[in-house]
Every structure is written in structure tokens, then in C-alpha cells.
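This section describes the prediction task in plain terms. A model, or a person checking by hand, is given the sequence of a single protein chain and must write out its three-dimensional structure as a string of C-alpha cells. No templates, partner chains or ligands are provided. The sample shown here is typical of the held-out split.
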Amino acid sequence: MFFTCAIHLVHLSMNPQFQVFRKQITQALKFRLFLLQKLPSAFFAGLKIESFDEKHAAVTVKHKWFNQNPFRSLYFAIQSMAAEMSTGLLCYGQLYQRKPAVSMLVLQVKGSFSKKATGKITFTCNDGAAIEEAVEEAVKSGNGTIVKCLSVGKDEISEIVSEFEVVWSFKTKKIRS
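The expected answer:
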């Protein structure tokens, strides 16, 4: 008898605590409490995590009275907030309880808008691998690194309403004596 085995290699994040962070932050109540405590404007705007793993993150926001502009669409700052969060979740997951500790900072945000944003908008970033690589390089080298992330906002019929480029920097924190 001849048996064929397929071996599937699962890529595990270089940060062993990534899955702990993912499990905690994707619990709706814990996420809402986190927002209320750390990002109250995101809490009131209604940001929610739709999906999140090591490779991608999707954050949703619904157009409503509280977050609209005078043209009855989603205010650009709310779109920017959701886009930044879709990239930031991936960054934070790579840094969560990491030894040595690594700091993160947004250096730049660029946005472009192509359609009126109404209804439920989903911002998706698929740059998890690039983020992991930049964080690992910062840890190994001790130097700061940067990564450019793209977050694409789509409406309920999958039409692009906006795109954001978010540039993050990472640097290993110095141990103070």
C-alpha cells in the first residue's frame, strides 16, 4: 500500500502572544471596553472588528447621525480612524507583551476618496506579513523600522469608497536602569 501525506505548514507569528491578543480583542465586550477606555472616539463612532488574524484585519463602521458630514455621508476623519485601526490591530498584535518591548507610532496617513461613504463600510488591511517583518527587523537590529500599510474601505456592494496609506514606525524600547 502507498499512502500520500499532505503536510500543511502553518505560519505562526514571530510574536507568540499574538493569538492571546487576537482572542482577547475579538471578544465584542472586551473590544468595546478597550475602546471606551483607550479610544473613546472610536467607541462612540461605532468601530467594530469584522475579522482579524496574523495576515489581515477588517474593521467596520456604519454611517449614522453621530459620524456624518454635512453631505450625509461618513465623515472623512471617521474613515481615517477605521482605516488606521485596521492597520494598527496588526501592528499591536505583533507587539503585544513582546520581550523586548517595541514602541509603535503613526508617522503618516494619506487618504483618497472615490465614492460617497454611506451604509456599512469595511476597511481591510492585508499587510500582516510586512508588519511582522518590520517588527522582527526592529527587534533584531535595534534600529527603528517603518512599514507602509494599505487599508481599503468598501461599501456593502464591495465598491471602494476610500483608500488610506498608513506609515508605522517600530523601535525597540531601551531598558532604563
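For orientation: The mean pLDDT is 91.
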